[in-house]
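Re: [ENG-882] Designed sequences occasionally contain unexpected residues at chain ends

Forwarding the minimal case from QA. Structure tokens:
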């Protein structure tokens, strides 16, 4: 984890724009000429062929920590030396750049083409930097709203995939908005082969009842359900008088595990609540980096092992 510490110390530094060489331009222009003769769907299919595995991270309800899971999943895979990209599909509520300390960055447009290079995020191994694309990179300020109807949102998602120079990746993580509507439907239709769905929920019934809808949607779309993660599963505090550790089930317990059993899908594990996760997330430092020995990191590492075993 020593290399992770070096990256953590640099998180506050401004990222350097990606240098575009003449070879990059020539290659992109050649690809652009080919793409001009393709339909949009053909471009998407071509791009997806260069990506070994696609993981859709979704939930039925907002506020369950879905983006935190998606970002840390990308980090965990990159740490292992894998080539990773993350696509923020939440067009109206894009938070991935915030959690990776990439606010204010812009994708690099290749001159003379209709293509762009995603923003380079953290580089944690020889696999190269995590490739990141989000609607947040295109907004004037973080407070600028995206007031779009479904067709425009779906068009943006397709352009992010078809026109992005993602290159060859081992994993592309797609962070979806809550629910089972336009963006979720479109993303599930576009990912193609070697894809799977990870559902994030909190333990209480009001969250799991919506997570169940997402699971059934995935099944209806004939996508592999990798499993359910029960996030925010218990808070452990120390008694100020005796130092005894006390677990408090703020949102109940076992709801995600029960849903997995009822719907006959894998249960990937529980991630507890830790105050530091919230603090570091707001600072743009994923908890796998900032707290490598925490109970949440240990639990998440086990979850990632199950996800990889299912996908590979």
């Amino acid at each position: 984890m020593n290399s992770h510490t070096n990256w953590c110390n640099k998180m506050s530094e401004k990222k350097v724009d990606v240098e575009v060489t003449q070879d990059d331009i020539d290659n992109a222009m050649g690809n652009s000429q080919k793409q001009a003769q393709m339909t949009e769907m053909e471009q998407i299919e071509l791009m997806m062929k260069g990506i070994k595995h696609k993981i859709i991270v979704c939930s039925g309800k907002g506020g369950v920590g879905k983006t935190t899971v998606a970002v840390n999943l990308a980090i965990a895979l990159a740490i292992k030396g894998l080539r990773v990209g993350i696509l923020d599909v939440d067009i109206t509520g894009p938070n991935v750049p915030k959690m990776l300390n990439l606010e204010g960055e812009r994708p690099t447009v290749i001159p003379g083409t209709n293509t762009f290079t995603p923003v380079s995020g953290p580089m944690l191994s020889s696999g190269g930097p995590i490739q990141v694309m989000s609607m947040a990179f295109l907004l004037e300020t973080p407070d600028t709203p995206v007031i779009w109807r479904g067709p425009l949102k779906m068009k943006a998602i397709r352009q992010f995939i078809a026109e992005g120079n993602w290159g060859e990746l081992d994993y592309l993580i797609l962070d979806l908005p809550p629910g089972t509507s336009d963006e979720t439907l479109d993303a599930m239709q576009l990912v193609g082969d070697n894809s799977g769905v990870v559902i994030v929920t909190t333990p209480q019934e009001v969250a799991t009842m919506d997570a169940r809808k997402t699971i059934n949607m995935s099944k209806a779309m004939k996508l592999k359900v990798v499993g359910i993660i029960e996030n925010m599963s218990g808070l452990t505090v120390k008694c100020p008088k005796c130092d005894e550790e006390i677990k408090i089930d703020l949102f109940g317990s076992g709801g995600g595990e029960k849903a997995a059993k009822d719907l006959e899908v894998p249960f990937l594990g529980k991630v507890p609540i830790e105050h530091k996760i919230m603090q570091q997330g707001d600072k743009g430092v994923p908890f796998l980096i900032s707290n490598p020995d925490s109970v949440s990191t240990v639990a998440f590492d086990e979850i990632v092992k199950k996800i990889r075993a299912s996908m590979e």
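QA comment: On inspection the terminal residues look reasonable. Residues 60 and 214 are 6 Å apart (CA to CA). Proposing we downgrade this to a documentation issue.
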